[in-house]
Amino acid sequence: MKLKCIILFSVLLLIHQVIQAQAEVIRVKAGEDISKAISNYGKYRFDSFRQGRLYYTYGKTATARFNYNYLIEEMQFINPESGDTLAIAYPDQVKFIKFDSTVFYYNEGFMEIINDYDTVQIAAKQKIKISFEKIGAYNQPNATDDIDNNQTYVDEHHMYYKLIINQDAIIKKQIDWYLFTSDNERPVRADKAGFEKLYPGHTSAIRNFLKTKKDGLKDLESITQLLLICCDRSIVR
């Protein structure tokens, strides 16, 4: 039982280090392609569109080649007839999309399952926030203005616009963490309320743990530590 908890901690800590590396604040110079700073594969999750199966909330399934677009927060697919890149029309009807080793759930946005361990799953929802520095007199940057990247980078055909010349951009990647269990189809936030809902028998331990965390459950490492506290009776069967 303790060995399983140690393995869980080691795996999630490794994933935490990888995701922390991707969560840096990145500055992109004017004239550069902003998508190249989003991930290893530009604005996409995968290096190419991959075969996957979509499971709808009403029971039907469909297969296609999918890829998740981080920049505009859309799951896209290749139309097999026209070859066009399209967005899923009604994402709120999607339960999840399964690839060979990756699963995306939908719950007010797509989230990727980071780890699946026994009866609990940890999911990450990544949001990209982009700010611009306007270049003023004498080619000096003015104060940074936040811009809604969904309006800035997408036209009616869901085509991507490159960074406007004479503007530097600052990219911030925000990750929100969620928990799934086999008894709860809808995810809950990996925060105090979420843990207490999933593990009511550990309320005192959860509150005592959070007293030692000034920033709360903001990263995967803290979530993992609290999960280990709850796992002895709640995760490992």
List the helices and strands and how they pair.
Blueprint: H1 2-22, E1 26-28, E2 50-56, E3 61-69, E4 74-78, E5 85-87, E6 94-98, E7 103-106, E8 110-117, E9 120-135, E10 141-147, H2 149-152, E11 167-181, E12 184-189, H3 192-198, H4 203-211, H5 220-234
Antiparallel strand pairs: 1-11, 2-3, 2-6, 3-4, 4-5, 6-7, 7-8, 8-9, 9-10, 9-11, 11-12
Name its key features.
single chain; 237 residues; alpha+beta; 2 domains; twelve-stranded antiparallel sheet; 5 helices; 12 strands; 37% strand; disordered C terminus
Provide a brief overview of the structure:
By secondary structure, this protein is of the alpha+beta class.
Descriptive notes:
This protein is α+β, with helices and mostly antiparallel strands and 237 residues long. It folds into two domains: 20-189, no CATH class; 190-237, no CATH class. It is 24% helix and 37% strand. It is built from five helices and twelve strands. It has helices at 2-22, 149-152, 192-198, 203-211, 220-234; strands spanning 26-28, 50-56, 61-69, 74-78, 85-87, 94-98, 103-106, 110-117, 120-135, 141-147, 167-181, 184-189. Strands 1, 2, 3, 4, 5, 6, 7, 8, 9, 10, 11 and 12 form a twelve-stranded antiparallel β-sheet that branches. A hairpin with a 4-residue loop joins β3 (61-69) and β4. α1 packs antiparallel against α5 (220-234). The protein is flat and about 55 Å long. Mean pLDDT is 77; it is low at 1-22, 143-152, 154-161 and 233-237.
